[in-house]
Amino acid sequence: MLSKHGMRLPIVGKFWLSIQQTLAILEADMRKLCHDPSELFTRMLQPVIWLLIFGQAMAKAVSIPTGTSSYLNYIAPGILAQSVLFIAIFYGIALIWEKDLGVVHKILVTPAPRLALVTGRGLAAGIRSLSQLVIIYLLSFFLGIDLRLDLPGLLGVIAMVMLSGTLFATFSLIIACIVKKRERFMGIGQVLTMPLFFASNALYPIDRMPEWLQTVSRFNPMTYQVDALRELMIHNQVSRFGLGVDFGVGLAVLVVLLLIAARIYPKILY
């Protein structure tokens, strides 16, 4: 990689330049959000419905041993994870729109590495997901859910939400690069979100699942996301797999998805 003066950059210079390029993509996505924040408000309706209607109704109806004082305590982290999934998994449709408008063509002719392009977009989705965190915490407070509000817990939740939003958004970009059509993307996105959500521990413990579904759940990255959020959000809850495993699985899956997305990103044009 060459500098603007034509000299070859050292390794540290290359790394710093890649970070700057990633942040430039991130900033561009954030500017779009600032110009049209209505998407965030519409996305907030979903967790409100799940917690206020589904959560309270099921709290009266179910007798599943969840290890918490109430079913609402159990599913609040799962609803946050679901909200992050839903806001991130359809992120790829913006890439298809930009391809149709010719924006992607202009970005791809820049010298920025493909990895910086997809990482910047993924991080932007992770930041968008933080809006779901705010609404879930506000709802949980008014519903009397036993939230942890200590600084380590809050920072851990923010980190996991960012990680999960980036992960699922990168997955979404991969789908967009493969299907290339908005109609196909919407159909595939709907098909993928339900299995990811229901084949996790968001609504019920893994131990209560059939054996085959327990196996599927252990290969589902959302399971580890919910597992970490449950310890970080709710008092007296302990991660089933351990926070190190939960974050480690998320990071490993994210790295693999970023490498795949960076490789196929230019194929969105053809």
Protein model, in words:
With 270 residues, the protein is mainly α. It has one domain. The chain contains eleven helices and no strands. It has helices at 11-35, 38-61, 71-89, 92-101, 103-108, 114-142, 151-179, 182-198, 211-218, 221-233, 243-264. α1 (11-35) packs across α6 (114-142), α2 (38-61) packs antiparallel against α3 (71-89) and α3 (71-89) packs antiparallel against α6. It is globular, with a radius of gyration of 20 Å. The two termini are 27 Å apart. Residues 1-7 have low confidence and may be disordered.
The SSE string, one letter per element, is: HHHHHHHHHHH
Using only C-alpha atoms, the radius of gyration works out to 20 Å
**Mean pLDDT, all residues:** 82
Measure the end-to-end span.
27 Å
Structural class category: mainly alpha
| Helical run tally | 11
Q: What percent of residues are in strands? A: under 5%
Number of domains: 1
Principal-axes shape call = globular
Describe the biggest sheet? Answer: none
Share of helix, binned: over 70%
